[in-house]
Design goal:
Layout (H helix, E strand, L loop, with lengths): L2 E3 L1 H18 L4 E8 L5 E8 L2 E3 L4 E3 L1 H14 L5 E7 L5
Parallel strand pairs: 1-3
Antiparallel strand pairs: 2-3, 2-6, 4-5
Length: about 90
Amino acid sequence: MEVYINEKDWNTILNYAKYAENSMGTEIGGMSVVLEDKDGDWKIQDPVIMKQEVGGGSCELDKAELAEYYSKMEIKYRNHNMRFCWWHSHASM
């Protein structure tokens, strides 16, 4: 079993992190879905950010927005073997 991410989604996460670091000097976090492919490997995809409290060494996602995200993704990917991935940056660390 392997876990992978395509270049576009990886760059999306990196750009979120760079923006947070450059504009606020903070971490940032978000969510992605992880879907099992036909070979039994897992693909991280569709990274998003949502309302959150951020700091130089922490980020906390808004609970209401996180619950809404889980619901929407469960509906969107109901016919797939899916997991959720919480990702976050480490600012200048």
